[in-house]
Structures are given as C-alpha cells and as structure tokens.
Amino acid sequence: MLRKLVVLACVSGALMAANIKMDLNAVYGANNFHTKGAEQFAALVDEYTKGTVKITVHAGGSLIKGSPLQAVKDGTVAMTDMFIPFTAGGGKVFGISALPFVASSYDDAYKLYKISKPAYEKTAAAWNQKMLYAVSWPPSGLYTKKPMASKVDFSDLKTRTYDKNSADFITMVGGSSVALPWGEVYSALSTGMVNSVVTSSASGKDGKFWEVLSDFTKISYAYPLQAVTINLDYWKSLDKAQQSALLKAAEKIEASQWEASKNEDKVALKMLSDNGMKITEATPELKKELDIVAKKMLDAYLADADDSIKKIFVEYKK
Fold first, then answer.
1. pTM to 2 decimals?
2. pLDDT tens, 166-206?
3. Which of 42, 120, 239, 254 fits 55 for a cystine, CB–CB 3.0-4.6 Å?
4. What does the pLDDT look like over 277-288, one tens digit per residue?
5. Whole-angstrom Cα distance, residue 85 to residue 186?
6. Is residue 156 within 8 Å of residue 247, measured between CB atoms?
7. Domains (ranges, CATH) in the chain?
8. How far apart are CA 90 and CA 72, in angstroms?
C-alpha cells in the first residue's frame, strides 16, 4: 500500500508530473558511510527532479522491524538499503558477494558485481522491487582476542557471523558460529557469549571493537554488497523523467560510494590501530588452509546452482 505517496492536482487542465514523497530506511546509523551515501542520493534526486521527488532518509533501521526485502515488497516502506547476503533466502544469487575469497580486491568485487547485476535485478523484480545501486563493504576480516596464525587457532572461537556462508565457513575451519543481531554484538563480546567477529574494518570502527577485542586479521574473507532498492509500485508511479533522474542519481552515487568504501577502509584501519588494536595480514599457512575451505564452499554452492549463476562464474574467471 502506498501510504506515503503524495500526488498533487492537475493545473490548468493539463496533467503534470506528480510530486512524490518517499521514505528510505537506512539500516545503519547516521555516521555510517552507506547512510551518508543514501543522504547524498536523496539530495541528487531532489536536484535532478527539480524538487518533484523528495526522499527522506531514516537512519538506524527505524522504519523496519524484520526483513527489509519483505518490507519493500509489501510497500511497508518505499525504499531501503539492505545487506545483500542477509537476503540470500530470497534468491541464491544474493549470496554471491559473501562467498569466501571469490573476490580478493575491490577491482575483483566490482567486476563480480557488474557481471552478477542482471541476476540481482531479476531476483529483486521477483520481490516487487528495483535495485537502484549497490556498494561493497570494506573486505571482511576476523576480530579476535589473540593472534591467528593457523587453522588450529579457530578451535576455541565463538564467532558472530553475518550470513549462512560465513557461518558455514567458521564451522568448517573448526570454530563455532553464532547468529546475533548487530545491536547485540558488543554486549555479547563483553560477556563472553562470543569472542570473535567476522566483519569489516568499518563495522569494527563503528562498534569500537578495540574495547573488547585485541586483534584484527585481514583475511579479506569477502566484499559483501549493500544495495538500495525501491518498491516497483512506487517506481511505476514516477514519470519517465523522474525515473531517469533516479537512475542518473543512482549511477553517480554508486560510483562515488565504491570510492568512499575504499577510503572508509583506510580510515577505519587507522582508527583501529590508533586505539591499540593489532592489525595483521593472514599468514601464508593460514591463507592456504582457508583457501581449501573456500574452494569446498564454492564447489558446494555451484553444485545445485542453475545455469545463469554458473555462467556468472565462468564470465568472472575470464
């Protein structure tokens, strides 16, 4: 239901472009770079549509209780950003960006995203929404209370993971995975419910992990995507000029936000280090052991994948 769609009356008997107001649910806090990107997107849309489309960004996930994918499908909110690996239950393709070690750099991650984008868009459409843009998080690393030199060091880890892939990965390496909402992670670390986390430098910075953990190992596990989508009924309520303006804004923000992600990684790593966290690269031994597990996971992922997904990986490996 388009509860917040505002359509103004005709003027001088001619039908004019509707003035549209939409709310955009931003999952993370106001200072997170994804939320800042959403704010910049809203400002560009206002500029490019000459004020006929107004988007209000609500930080901290305040508009949605539950699945962002479902909320946009139902029209509970017009727009949201969402962590794509969380929505893998909505379509197998949504798990691609969180497969371990498939991408080993931002260039790899962007190439994989561009090849996968048509499949993302098709799956989003099946959920009554249109993907406007997507941006990688900084690469996921491993936060712990000790140095991590080999697979043996995982045996006593109780790790907060962010999706099925990362949970399977930790389990296969020899640790225990724990599913927790982000808002509960810090307290769980403080009480010992978990003693490690798989996440980005940016999330560790935002979570002040240096207060409860000591080490960050840059295993570059994955470059998971955060996307912004719009409900298709809202999208279709826009005229062609407004739709073009949103796509123009989305294209510009996507490009700038990929650069912002790279910068956020540098800023976050410095802040972690400045606050006493030891930052290290994965040892050759650890990298070799983790690569073996990652290969098994990719083989299992592709075993029951349809041809459209398999073609993504064929194209990616060229």
1. 0.91
2. 999 999 999 999 999 888 999 999 999 999 999 999 999 99
3. 42
4. 999 999 999 999
5. 21
6. no
7. 20-137+224-267 (3.40.190.170), 140-222+277-316 (3.40.190.170)
8. 13
